[in-house]
Amino acid sequence: MFLNTRSLFVWCLAALLEAEAASVSSKPKPIVLSESAPSNAGIPLDSFVSYSFELSSWPDFAGNLSYPNKFSYNLLNNIGNLQGSLPIARVGGNTQDIAIFDASQKTGLLGIVRPNISSDYPTIITIGPSFFESYKTMPKGTKYSHGFNLGANSSAARTATFASAAYACKAIGSDLAYWEYGNEPDLFVSSGYRPHNYTEAEYVEEWLNGTTAISSAVKAACPSLANTKFMAPSFAGVGPANDFFTLDPVLAWKNGLDQNDNIGLISSHNYMGVSTSPGITLQGTLMNHTNVVAKAGDQLREWAAIKALGNGLDPDVPFILGEHNSLARQGRPGLSNSFGAALWGVDWNVYLASQNISRSHMHQGTNYRYQSWQPIQTNLTTIGTKPPYYGNLAVAAMMSKPHPSSLLKITHLPASSANNSFYTAHVDNTLTRLLIVDLHTYNTTANNYTTSFPRP
């Protein structure tokens, strides 16, 4: 809910609180809305609402020069028009560390799906030079991050990866925002890419050697892009290490991950749970502000631990979620593709912004259950927008700035509770918007409400 008249702000807030109070037999508590932003307000980066695209799905979402995907083009434009800056497209994910570059391959991407490993994406992939055409199809001004393969551990695969850098930089050109080398390397042991004794020091050595080789290849092919920085380390876990997330991100920084001063963003990944885990529910897992605050708190503690390293080990750059969505393993039907998940996305993303997590890349893939839109028609999923996209639009509207130089600040109000959250947006230190998110679940085809609130 977005209102621009201050008297309506207060009226709406009071009405909601009175309704909630009636259900718990108590009086509403007044909330003070400050004319100016508080000192702890979050200051998101431009393009706060951004996306992460599974590398194997990128040609579906973007198309190519012969057949650009106009549907994706329009949907990204919608977000850009609302928030005042186009989403940044991060291309990577699990298949980033599977894809092998073949300079002689005529087809952009060839993939083989092995259902015993995953039915959601190919697990044998080669990409050719024409793969990079997809970076030329989105709205003018769209910026990109391209992910290179760190998972493949042979000298031939590494040589091919470094050779692909020249093709990538020539295709993306001045629209390049960042590089990325490796996706969730703290899962490399679990994925079988590295031995069980793989350490943070070994990861850092590999990352430094690889990023140096990539930067050298880019300097030779695209001199103007030679100083492009990386987002890193793109871990799935927040530490400490365990049997599943076998690397600790803080120890990676402590081992000198940024000793070459080539990291532009601290990138972390997050999911609210795993789709196949027991006990996952819409109300308890997603439409639950308490859970949102707790999961974001894990990320914030990781960031604080990195900043506490000092001595040049902390890169002193923005902290972002380079990949996230509702439930890992591509989401669960009936939960991740519901309008309840759209409301979770609103609450989650705006809360991130209020805590100075500076940008949000929501992960997308063809046929994925948590996708914001299906880019093409398949035998599994109909092309079209999905409920999460409408949540993305709401977040983009909350992040709107009238001018690129305007200063946006997002505040999480202390009145928020498990099933309601409240936020304000100040633009140039003027109260501009109030966002109220009602996280009580209900089924529009049933009358088994848990509260007596009036329904739209």
TrEMBL record:
Keyword Signal carried by entry: yes
Organism expressing this protein natively: Aureobasidium pullulans (Black yeast)
UniProtKB keywords: Signal
Keyword Membrane: no
Protein name stated in the entry: Beta-glucuronidase C-terminal domain-containing protein
UniProt xrefs under InterPro entries: GH, GH79_Enzymes
Phylogenetic classification of the source organism: Eukaryota, Fungi, Dikarya, Ascomycota, Pezizomycotina
PANTHER family xref list: BETA-GLUCURONIDASE, BETA-GLUCURONIDASE C-TERMINAL DOMAIN-CONTAINING PROTEIN
Signal peptide: 1-21
